Amino acid sequence: MKRLSILFGFFVMVLTINAQSIIADGSIVKFKVSNMKWKTVKGTFTGMKGNVVFDTQNLSEAYFDVCIDPATVNTENKKRDNHLKNEDFFHVEKYPEICFKSTSINKTSEAYKVIGNLKMHGVNKPVEINFTYSNNTLVGQLIVNRLDFSVGEVTSTFMVGEEIELEIICKLR
């Protein structure tokens, strides 16, 4: 039993040593969505936190377990931001986090691809994120369908498009 405790302690220490800290001030999720079919609304989420282990030489041990705070939504329109926070969209009181947890990370011909589960608005769905890594910064892109996560009403697709383009910038130290 003592050996098992020592082994577990060593395992936790190795994970802690390899974990990178997210620099919250420099990390952001940018989004774009159509509005009334001809306009585009741009915005951001901040408050990124979680655990990242990323070593380009050891992708089999790499993982992401990262969350953002949907209450930080900012479209530079306070009335719209407050509406996005309520029950009609993100319902931030009931769902205070949007989280991504990786299941695998692979090198592609041009960059990297992470496969994992995105949990938003109480719905957990698999997604793939293509990303680059340079200067301790991960930059990823993906498109999500908000209706897949029960965000907003189906009848509101004229006012708010279904597909949301996301750019994730995660700065590490």
What does the model show?
By secondary structure, the chain is mainly beta. The chain has 2 helices and 9 strands; from the N terminus they run αββββαβββββ. Strands 2-1-9-8-7-6-5-4-3 form a 9-stranded antiparallel sheet, with no helix packed on it. A hairpin with a 2-residue loop joins β6 (112-120) and β7. The longest helix is centred in the first third of the chain and has 17 residues, at 2-18. The protein starts with a helix and ends with a strand. Mean pLDDT is 89; it is low at 4-17.
Termini, distance in Å? 36 Å
How many individual helices?
2
Mean of residue pLDDT values: 89
Spatial strand arrangement across the major sheet: 2-1-9-8-7-6-5-4-3
Uncertain ranges = 4-17
What structural category arises from helix and sheet content? mainly beta
Beta-strand content: 35-45%
Q: Helix amount, in percent?
A: 10-25%
How can the largest sheet be summarized?
9 strands, antiparallel
Order of helices and strands: HEEEEHEEEEE
General form: globular
What would you report as the Rg, rounded to the nearest angstrom?
A: 18 Å
Q: How many beta strands in the DSSP annotation?
A: 9
